[in-house]
Design brief:
It is built from eight helices and no strands. By secondary structure, the chain is mainly alpha-helical. Keywords: Heme, Iron, Metal-binding, Oxygen transport, Transport.
Length: about 140
């Protein structure tokens, strides 16, 4: 079980309160698909992902990026039980879609970059530490 300090909870909730899902979600997923092209194999039904321009203009990629952030929102609202919150999603991704679990970490890293670039200097080392802890718990829950 993960123990969260009140300050960590506040940092995570503050990030989500300022997060533009329709901007950050697509940017994070687009970055992951471009920087880690092997992740594209899970999105064959999304159509043209042949280059960065195609990925960045693909409406299915953008829509799924928003879905991913809404999924993270569920974790934020259930920080004391992220593992059970993601149990069904974990089974879907691992047993049905056969997603390599390391891809969740790669996407989390891309999301961190997008959020850091948006928050600027307010993404302090303390905020980043809380955010990284949160994402580590989420990634762990999705891996199982």
């Amino acid at each position: 079980m993960v123990v969260w300090t009140d300050q960590e909870r506040a940092y995570i909730q503050d990030i989500f309160s300022k997060l533009n899902y329709e901007d950050a979600g697509p940017k994070a997923l687009q970055r992951a698909l471009i920087v880690y092209p092997w992740t594209q194999r899970y999105f064959a039904s999304f159509g043209n992902l042949y280059n960065a321009e195609a990925i960045m203009s693909n409406p299915k990629v953008a829509a799924h990026g928003v879905v991913v952030l809404h999924g993270l929102d569920r974790a934020m609202k259930n920080m004391d039980d992220i593992k059970n919150t993601y149990a069904e999603l974990s089974v879907l991704h691992s047993e049905k879609l056969h997603v390599d679990p390391d891809n969740f970490r790669l996407l989390a890293d891309c999301l961190t970059i997008v959020i850091a670039s948006t928050m600027g200097t307010s993404f302090t080392p303390e905020v980043q530490a809380a955010w990284q802890k949160f994402l580590a718990v989420v990634v762990s829950a999705l891996r199982r």
